[in-house]
Write a structure and sequence with these properties.
Blueprint (H helix, E strand, L loop, with lengths): L2 H4 L14 H66 L5
Length: 91
Amino acid sequence: MSAEASFPPMREYKPPVSVSPLIKFSRWSALILGVVYGATRHSYLQRKEDNMRETVERERALRKALREEEKKLKLKSELADLAKQVGVEKI
């Protein structure tokens, strides 16, 4: 068995057609415009996301401070209730 017998015969193709310069220009223009649009859009969205992250961080810090304050007040209240139950007066 020879190697040529196992493959189908090669097909003859027509020579490639030359592409119009207008089409080439249009393709390259679309590619370049797409890259520029993508870069500007990414920059815009990045700034927007950075602003949103700063806002979220500020709100997170504020919520944490409020939780800590509530925790202190609750602890103070519980200690006062415990002292009242045990019969200890404030010092």
